[in-house]
Design goal:
two-stranded antiparallel sheet; 14 helices; globular; lyase; magnesium; transit peptide; (S)-citramalyl-CoA lyase activity; hydrolase activity
Amino acid sequence: MLSFTEIMECRKGLKLLGCGNRTYKAVIDTYLSNCQAKISKIWRCNYTSSANSTNNKPYIPRRTVMYVPGHDPKKLKKIPHLGVDCAVLECEDGVAINMKAEARKNIRDALEYLDVKTADLALRINSRSSQLMEADLGAIIGAELGAKANVRQLPQTILLPKVDSVEDLVIVSKSFKYLYENIKLDRGYCPYLLIYVESSQALLNMRDILKIGTDLTQLGVFQLDGVIFGSDDFVADIGAERTLDAKELMYARQKIVSVSKAFRLQVIDMVYLDIQDIEGLQRQSQEGAKMGFTGKQVIHPKQIQIVEAAFTPSPAKVDWALQLIQGFEEHQKSGKGAFVFRGQMIDMPLLRQAKNILKVIDVHKQAS
């Protein structure tokens, strides 16, 4: 039987050629429909409590996403004291090619000794196209695919770079599934997945990528939870010149926010490279928060507090969330019709937004 990728390529080719072979096209469409039917069946069986798959697991705030290079044990040991929302164990760009093996070993050791109560402990693996992804997963999570890694914890979140096409995500999901089956991981392990938009192709394909990611979430190998903007690779890809005010990235940032929010996903803004320019960092962080980003990447501890402040809900926003939730609960008890709050009809996405605001504040208080 043809693989999913082969089927998609055949279908694409038929469209480009205007092929009249309707019988063959019908076979392809039937195959794809059957695949979708399987996903839908799993969804009905396992996720009937929510129409949006991204709400099956607890909301994890990621106002600050900081990369900690895996080849540096001293920096890994500092993670519990960073005060960051999401600490990323780094295997990709922050690690030289000749240090990858050392980074994998250090990260695996860190998963045994790190005690992080308030941060999301994440792992950034190398991209599918790098040919290093399977080695990262095997060494850190699966003892080179021989047995489950003998560590106290596994990464709560996995960050996947350079997702340029639907095919990338489909193949990655197969790799995850193969990994789980071969090392007999506990069936309960289903990490959050954050994917990167780092090229014009990724931006163009973003809607389709997130749609298939939402569908693949139903298979239980990962839960798509957010999108990260890889601005430096994006600038290089489109041949733009990087400027301090980032005007050359305005369209990309707006589109990434809009498409991500359509799928109810978190969206993490770009890195601010000048670690000495605190005013510039503050300005860009506040701008990102107003645009709709839920957090920002940081590369140095001195950036954490500035970024965190920009993405922490204001007292007015917290008051809005508290009153909305209280009003909704009272409305539910009354058994009346549509719920109207401050002149606005309230639906479930808005209620989830209010709850997420309180979750951010709760995490903020625990870390303080």
